Amino acid sequence: MMKKMVSLLVLSLLAAGCEDGAPERTTTSVQAANTVSDQLKGMSELYRNLGLRRAIMDTGNRCKKVDRGGYQEQYKTMALWTAHCTDTGDWAIFIAPNADIQVRQCRHMAELKLPACRPIAAPAAEAKPAPKA
């Protein structure tokens, strides 16, 4: 009787160890709110460009005027924005959920192994009235 119980115990332990690999895991992706980025998204173009310029200037870089800019993508935990300064060219602005800002020139993104800046469409030229004859 004891041998049968031991045999059954051994067989049940062996059967329990014969799973089809690792147990299934359910992972949930959580993304922290980025209030600064959300505020920029809700601003008019003028104020958004001013905000992007300020981010560039506050990090010690030069920018006379941002004439275009926009949200590009989420990179890790940061919102990636791009801006074009009329005097210093294209910039990438990373905004963390805690409002920390990092700014890089777009031309350096590849060597830093960061996402490439996508081209920002130039502002539409203002229509000039036709000359009077």
Which H/E pattern describes the elements? HHHEEEE
Number of DSSP helical runs: 3
Residue share in helix: 25-40%
pLDDT < 50 stretches? none
Write down the overall geometry: rod-shaped
Number of strands: 4
Question: Strand pairing plus helix content: what structural class?
Answer: alpha+beta
Distance between the termini: 116 Å
β content, as a range? Answer: 15-25%
Strand order in the largest sheet: 1-2-3-4
Tell me the Rg in angstroms: 28 Å
Q: Biggest β-sheet: count, sense, barrel? A: 4 strands, antiparallel
How would you describe what is shown here?
With 133 residues, the chain is of the alpha+beta class. It has a domain at 35-108. The chain has helices at 2-16, 35-42, 45-58, and strands at residues 66-75, 78-85, 89-95, 101-105. The chain has a 4-stranded antiparallel sheet with strand order 1-2-3-4, covered by helices on one side. The N and C termini lie far apart (116 Å).
Strand and helix map with partners:
Elements: H1 2-16, H2 35-42, H3 45-58, E1 66-75, E2 78-85, E3 89-95, E4 101-105
Antiparallel strand pairs: 1-2, 2-3, 3-4
